[in-house]
Specification:
Distance between the termini: 35 Å
Radius of gyration: 18 Å
Strand content: under 5%
Mean pLDDT: 95
Shape: globular
Number of helices: 8
Number of strands: 0
Largest sheet: none
Order of helices and strands: HHHHHHHH
Length: about 180
Protein backbone atom coordinates (compact mmCIF):
# COMPACT_ATOMS: atom_id res chain seq x y z
CA UNK A 1 0.00 0.00 0.00
CA UNK A 2 2.70 2.46 0.98
CA UNK A 3 4.75 1.71 -2.13
CA UNK A 4 1.66 1.94 -4.33
CA UNK A 5 0.74 5.34 -2.87
CA UNK A 6 4.26 6.68 -3.44
CA UNK A 7 4.46 5.33 -7.01
CA UNK A 8 0.99 6.61 -7.85
CA UNK A 9 2.29 10.12 -7.29
CA UNK A 10 5.80 9.72 -8.74
CA UNK A 11 5.89 7.17 -11.56
CA UNK A 12 2.69 5.97 -13.23
CA UNK A 13 4.43 3.23 -15.22
CA UNK A 14 6.05 1.72 -12.15
CA UNK A 15 2.77 2.12 -10.28
CA UNK A 16 0.96 0.03 -12.88
CA UNK A 17 3.62 -2.69 -12.85
CA UNK A 18 3.54 -2.74 -9.06
CA UNK A 19 -0.25 -3.06 -9.04
CA UNK A 20 -0.06 -6.00 -11.47
CA UNK A 21 2.34 -7.62 -9.03
CA UNK A 22 -0.13 -6.98 -6.19
CA UNK A 23 -2.90 -8.61 -8.26
CA UNK A 24 -0.71 -11.70 -8.69
CA UNK A 25 0.10 -11.72 -4.97
CA UNK A 26 -3.61 -11.62 -4.16
CA UNK A 27 -4.33 -14.41 -6.65
CA UNK A 28 -1.56 -16.55 -5.13
CA UNK A 29 -3.41 -16.22 -1.83
CA UNK A 30 -6.83 -16.94 -3.30
CA UNK A 31 -7.98 -13.34 -2.69
CA UNK A 32 -8.33 -14.44 0.94
CA UNK A 33 -7.26 -11.75 3.41
CA UNK A 34 -6.62 -14.33 6.15
CA UNK A 35 -4.23 -16.29 3.92
CA UNK A 36 -2.61 -13.05 2.77
CA UNK A 37 -2.21 -11.94 6.38
CA UNK A 38 -0.56 -15.25 7.33
CA UNK A 39 1.64 -15.62 4.24
CA UNK A 40 2.65 -12.05 3.53
CA UNK A 41 1.35 -9.20 5.68
CA UNK A 42 2.58 -10.76 8.93
CA UNK A 43 6.16 -10.25 7.73
CA UNK A 44 5.89 -6.45 8.00
CA UNK A 45 6.90 -4.82 11.25
CA UNK A 46 4.55 -1.84 11.37
CA UNK A 47 2.79 0.19 14.03
CA UNK A 48 -0.77 -1.01 14.64
CA UNK A 49 -2.43 1.89 12.80
CA UNK A 50 -0.29 1.36 9.68
CA UNK A 51 -0.83 -2.41 9.84
CA UNK A 52 -4.59 -1.87 9.97
CA UNK A 53 -4.46 0.54 7.04
CA UNK A 54 -2.39 -1.91 5.00
CA UNK A 55 -4.62 -4.88 5.81
CA UNK A 56 -7.73 -2.87 4.91
CA UNK A 57 -6.16 -1.81 1.60
CA UNK A 58 -5.38 -5.41 0.68
CA UNK A 59 -8.81 -6.60 1.88
CA UNK A 60 -10.47 -3.96 -0.31
CA UNK A 61 -8.41 -5.07 -3.31
CA UNK A 62 -9.37 -8.70 -2.66
CA UNK A 63 -13.04 -7.71 -2.64
CA UNK A 64 -12.60 -5.66 -5.82
CA UNK A 65 -10.96 -8.60 -7.58
CA UNK A 66 -13.82 -10.89 -6.58
CA UNK A 67 -16.54 -8.40 -7.53
CA UNK A 68 -14.88 -7.50 -10.85
CA UNK A 69 -14.36 -11.15 -11.80
CA UNK A 70 -10.57 -10.97 -12.04
CA UNK A 71 -9.76 -13.41 -9.26
CA UNK A 72 -8.19 -15.85 -11.74
CA UNK A 73 -6.85 -13.50 -14.45
CA UNK A 74 -7.26 -10.06 -15.92
CA UNK A 75 -6.77 -6.69 -14.26
CA UNK A 76 -8.70 -4.54 -11.84
CA UNK A 77 -10.62 -1.68 -13.41
CA UNK A 78 -8.44 0.85 -11.60
CA UNK A 79 -5.42 -0.63 -13.37
CA UNK A 80 -7.20 -0.76 -16.72
CA UNK A 81 -8.07 2.92 -16.27
CA UNK A 82 -4.45 3.76 -15.46
CA UNK A 83 -3.25 1.99 -18.60
CA UNK A 84 -5.96 3.64 -20.69
CA UNK A 85 -5.06 7.14 -19.51
CA UNK A 86 -1.39 6.46 -20.26
CA UNK A 87 -2.30 5.04 -23.69
CA UNK A 88 -4.35 8.13 -24.55
CA UNK A 89 -1.48 10.40 -23.56
CA UNK A 90 0.95 8.20 -25.51
CA UNK A 91 -1.17 8.53 -28.67
CA UNK A 92 -1.31 12.32 -28.34
CA UNK A 93 2.46 12.57 -27.76
CA UNK A 94 3.25 10.38 -30.79
CA UNK A 95 0.83 12.32 -32.99
CA UNK A 96 2.20 15.73 -32.03
CA UNK A 97 5.32 17.17 -33.66
CA UNK A 98 5.97 19.10 -30.42
CA UNK A 99 7.56 16.09 -28.69
CA UNK A 100 10.42 14.88 -30.90
CA UNK A 101 12.32 13.14 -28.09
CA UNK A 102 9.26 11.10 -27.13
CA UNK A 103 8.56 10.26 -30.76
CA UNK A 104 12.19 9.16 -31.22
CA UNK A 105 11.93 6.90 -28.17
CA UNK A 106 8.69 5.46 -29.53
CA UNK A 107 10.14 4.74 -32.96
CA UNK A 108 13.11 3.06 -31.30
CA UNK A 109 10.70 0.75 -29.42
CA UNK A 110 8.31 0.14 -32.33
CA UNK A 111 10.35 -2.71 -33.90
CA UNK A 112 10.23 -4.59 -30.58
CA UNK A 113 6.47 -4.14 -30.43
CA UNK A 114 6.08 -5.46 -33.99
CA UNK A 115 8.33 -8.45 -33.27
CA UNK A 116 6.44 -9.35 -30.10
CA UNK A 117 3.11 -9.07 -31.84
CA UNK A 118 4.35 -11.26 -34.69
CA UNK A 119 5.25 -13.95 -32.17
CA UNK A 120 1.57 -14.11 -31.28
CA UNK A 121 -0.71 -13.42 -28.40
CA UNK A 122 -0.45 -9.64 -28.48
CA UNK A 123 -2.07 -8.63 -31.78
CA UNK A 124 -5.30 -7.27 -30.28
CA UNK A 125 -3.82 -5.20 -27.49
CA UNK A 126 -2.51 -1.67 -27.58
CA UNK A 127 1.14 -0.97 -28.21
CA UNK A 128 1.45 0.34 -24.69
CA UNK A 129 -0.11 -2.83 -23.27
CA UNK A 130 2.52 -4.82 -25.17
CA UNK A 131 5.28 -2.67 -23.65
CA UNK A 132 3.96 -3.21 -20.14
CA UNK A 133 3.56 -6.95 -20.79
CA UNK A 134 7.22 -7.15 -21.80
CA UNK A 135 8.42 -5.35 -18.69
CA UNK A 136 6.20 -7.40 -16.41
CA UNK A 137 7.24 -10.66 -18.05
CA UNK A 138 10.92 -9.82 -17.67
CA UNK A 139 10.35 -8.83 -14.06
CA UNK A 140 8.79 -12.25 -13.43
CA UNK A 141 11.72 -13.98 -15.15
CA UNK A 142 14.16 -12.09 -12.92
CA UNK A 143 12.19 -12.97 -9.78
CA UNK A 144 12.41 -16.62 -10.83
CA UNK A 145 16.14 -16.14 -11.48
CA UNK A 146 15.69 -17.22 -15.10
CA UNK A 147 18.00 -15.91 -17.82
CA UNK A 148 17.10 -12.91 -19.95
CA UNK A 149 18.74 -12.65 -23.37
CA UNK A 150 20.84 -9.61 -24.26
CA UNK A 151 18.33 -8.78 -27.00
CA UNK A 152 15.51 -8.76 -24.46
CA UNK A 153 17.62 -6.64 -22.09
CA UNK A 154 18.10 -4.10 -24.89
CA UNK A 155 14.36 -4.03 -25.56
CA UNK A 156 13.62 -3.62 -21.85
CA UNK A 157 16.04 -0.69 -21.62
CA UNK A 158 14.41 1.11 -24.54
CA UNK A 159 10.87 0.34 -23.41
CA UNK A 160 11.71 1.53 -19.89
CA UNK A 161 13.04 4.78 -21.31
CA UNK A 162 9.84 5.32 -23.30
CA UNK A 163 7.58 4.55 -20.34
CA UNK A 164 9.68 6.75 -18.07
CA UNK A 165 9.21 9.66 -20.46
CA UNK A 166 5.50 8.90 -20.69
CA UNK A 167 5.20 8.92 -16.91
CA UNK A 168 7.03 12.26 -16.74
CA UNK A 169 4.65 13.74 -19.33
CA UNK A 170 1.70 12.34 -17.38
CA UNK A 171 2.65 14.34 -14.31
CA UNK A 172 3.56 17.44 -16.32
CA UNK A 173 0.14 17.31 -17.98
CA UNK A 174 -1.57 16.96 -14.59
CA UNK A 175 0.28 19.92 -13.10
CA UNK A 176 0.03 22.19 -16.12
CA UNK A 177 -1.98 20.80 -19.06
CA UNK A 178 0.14 20.28 -22.14
CA UNK A 179 -0.70 22.47 -25.10
CA UNK A 180 -1.09 20.24 -28.13
Amino acid sequence: MFIANRLKDTNRAEFLLYMWQVEDLLRANGCDIDRLRANYLSKFDLPDDQRQQMEQWYADLCEMMRSEGVKENGHLQININTLQSLAELHERLVASPKFPFYRAAYYKVLPYIVEIRNRGGHKDESELQTCFDVLYGVMLLRLQKKPVTPETEAAVKDISTLLGQLSDYYFKDREDPIEW
